[in-house]
Amino acid sequence: MNIKNVFSQFKEGLYKSRIELANKLAFLFSDSKDKSDFLEKLEELLILSDLGTCATAEIMNEFQQINFREYKENNFIFFKEKLKATLIDILNSTASDIKINEDRLNIIMLVGVNGSGKTSVAGKIAYRLKNINKDIIMVPADTFRAAAIQQLKILADKVGAEMINTKEGADPASVVYDGISAARARKKNIVIIDTAGRLHTKTNLMNELEKIKRVIQKEANDCSLEILQTIDATMGQNAIAQAEFFNKSLGVTGIALTKMDGTAKGGIVIAIKKELDITVKLISCGEKLNNLYDFKADKFVEALLD
Ligand SMILES: Nc1nc2c(ncn2[C@@H]2O[C@H](COP(=O)(O)OP(=O)(O)O)[C@@H](O)[C@H]2O)c(=O)[nH]1
Ligand SMILES: [Mg+2]
Fold first, then answer.
1. Spacing, Cα 114 to ligand 2 middle (Å)
2. Whether this model's pTM surpasses 0.70
3. CB within 8 Å of 55: residues ≥ 6 apart
4. What is the Å distance from ligand 2's center to 50 Cα?
5. Among 182, 157, 199, which Cα is nearest to 107's?
6. What single string gives the DSSP state of each residue in 140-188?
7. With b meaning 16 or more CB within 10 Å and e meaning fewer, what string describes 205-241?
């Protein structure tokens, strides 16, 4: 697929958020009586779109400065461009995609609460890497339920990637050990680890994940390790607390924000950026294997507002 098609597919995935935000912005712009009325409505919309209080305050600060009459005389586009520039400014991050180093083992470990999209994202990343002819080993370290192993197996078969065999109840850290050994033995340099996500308030899950991390550090000390946390965008502000929790235990290196197609509150990306010191690297908006996109601030803002 060419870049233009990829972008329109991404835009399509953000449909709900775009309709909510772009339409309401146009309406509030034309509907406002005066500057304070406009600012009040704008603030309300930003909060409702889940941008969070910090980012909203920063944006409001920008718009306090405007000459409202001049804005009215210009047009909506003028206002929208200023908002876009402000958002891009807040979101602006250094290049943040998943890098694969040819000269070493690359381990990508998915973590996150149940249902947040770990297994799906593991499959989507594998699909993407397979498309550029990378050799992958998939590791089902969610051994809590047989169905979870089976779900990953189906995805691995679909994309044509090898998966380590295991059984329900097996020690997840041992499965990871097997995965690393297999990668070394077969000279494959990408290992994708799916993990369990029972409630993050249960310390045994964190212990289990920390143990996996220790195995990685011991067995593959020289690897490039990406600990990617999946966050369900429909969770709203709760997602922020979740992310902090995982990050404290594990040191998360990036976020994959999932189910962006299922929410009208795409502003959560901005809240995450503003309130956490973790980079959003991937956006998933849809259930197909190719519905995973690198996060780029300008493209995201364009898809959200245009
Ligand atoms: N609409 C939509 N559904 C998603 C997306 N990502 C995951 N899902 C669905 O969310 C559910 C839970 O995903 P799963 O990967 O099993 O979550 P896990 O428990 O963290 O492994 C599944 O039904 C997925 O198909 C997405 O980006 N969009
Ligand atoms: Mg899963």
1. 7
2. yes
3. 46, 90, 267, 270, 271, 273, 274
4. 26
5. 182
6. EE--S-HHHHHHHHHHHHHHT-EE----TT--HHHHHHHHHHHHHHTT-
7. bbebbeebbebbeebbeebbbbbbbbbbbbbeeebbe
Per-residue pLDDT of the chain (306 residues; tens, 9 = 90+): 676 788 899 999 999 999 988 889 888 888 888 889 989 999 999 998 888 999 999 999 998 888 877 777 667 888 889 999 999 998 876 657 788 999 999 999 999 999 999 999 999 999 999 999 999 999 999 998 899 999 999 999 999 999 999 999 999 999 999 999 999 999 999 999 999 987 555 568 899 999 999 999 999 999 999 999 999 999 988 888 888 989 999 999 999 999 999 999 888 989 998 888 888 999 999 999 999 999 999 999 999 998
C-beta 118 within 6 A of ligand 1: yes
- Ligand nearest, relative to CA of residue 145: 2
Per residue in 78-100, pLDDT tens? 888 999 999 999 887 665 778 89
Beta-strand runs (E) in the chain:
106-111, 136-141, 162-163, 190-195, 224-232, 254-258, 280-284, 292-294
Q: Is 92 exposed, middle or buried (0-12, 13-18, 19+ CB in 10 A)?
A: exposed
Q: How long, in residues, is the chain?
A: 306
Contacts of 127 (CB under 8 A, 6+ apart): 158, 159, 289, 290, 292
CA–CA separation, 91 vs 292, rounded Å?
19
Contact (CB, 8 A) for 91 and 296: no
User: What are the phi and psi torsion angles at 135 (to 5°)?
Assistant: -95, 130
Choose among 133, 130, 99: nearest CA to 282.
99
To the nearest 10°, report the CA torsion of 291, 136, 164, 125: -20
Q: How far is the CA of 113 from the centre of ligand 1 (A)?
A: 11
The closest-lying atom of ligand 1 relative to the alpha carbon of residue 262 is: 1
Nearest ligand for residue 142 CA:
2
